[in-house]
Amino acid sequence: MRSSNPVFSRRGFSRDNGYANVNAAPQAGAPVAGANPYATNPYAQPDAQYGAPQAPARSGAMTIDDVVTRTALTLGTVVAGAAAAWALLPVDEANLTKSYGIAIGAALIAFVLSLVQSFKRTPVPALIIAYAAFEGVFLGVISSAVSTYIGPGVVMQAVMGTMCVFAGVLFAYKMRWIRVTRRFYGFVMAAAMGFMLLMVVNLLFAAFGGGDGLGFRSGGLGILFGVVGIILGACFLALDFKQVEDGVAYGAPREESWLAAFGLTMTLVWIYLEMLRLLSILSGDD
Fold this sequence. Notes:
two-stranded antiparallel ribbon; 2 strands; mainly alpha; globular
C-alpha cells in the first residue's frame, strides 16, 4: 500500500512500485497464489540455489526506533527553523514585505527540494534536512503573522491541535479502528485530488479576480474546507502509519526510515497549516 503522501506515493517501500497486501498481515517471503512472490514482500531475497524468495536479513533493516529518531530529527529541524524565523524575521509594518518575501522564497525552495527527493530512488538525508529547515522558515513567518495580527494564542492552539490529531490517529490505528485498505486508499486519493483542485481554482480566482476567490478561505466555506483539510491530513497519517508498519514488517533497509520521517513531516505540516487557517477564521469571526 502506497500512501497518499507525495513521497510515499512516488516510491513507497516497494521495489516494484506495486501494492502490498493490505488486507492481511505481511509475511516475509510468503508468496501469493497467482501473483509475483516479490510483490508481497518486495525486500525478500532470492535463494541462490532455487531462486525462491527468502526472508530478508534482519541486520540493517528498518525499525520503529529508526523512524522515530529520524522523524524527531526532521521535525526538530522544522521547529528550529521556525523559531529562528520568528526571532529574526519580524512581521511588523517596517519589515512585513521583506519577511513575507523570504517566507515565500523558503516555501518555494522547500517545495522544489521535496520534489527532488520524491523523484530520487533512494533517500538523501541532506535534502530532507534542508527541506525541513526551509519549511520551518516559512512556518515561522506565517505563525508569527498569525500571532501578531489575529491572536497570540492561535499558534499554540494549532500546535496542540496538530499533536492531538497525530495522537488520536495513532491510537485509532493501533486499536485497528482505522483499517487501511485499497478502498480506503482510493477514497483518500480521490478526495485529496478534489480538495487540491478546488484550492487551486480558488487561488486563481483570488489572483485574477481579487478578494477571496470562491470563498474557500474565509467564512462558513472556509471553516468547512478547513475541517475537510484536517480530516484529509488525518487520513494521510493513517496511510503513512500503514506504510511504516509494512516497511518494518517486510524488512525494508534502514535508510528507508528517512523517507518515513520525510513523509510524516510533510503530513504534519499539512495538518498544522490547515489547523492554523481554521483557527484563524474562527478567531476572526469572534
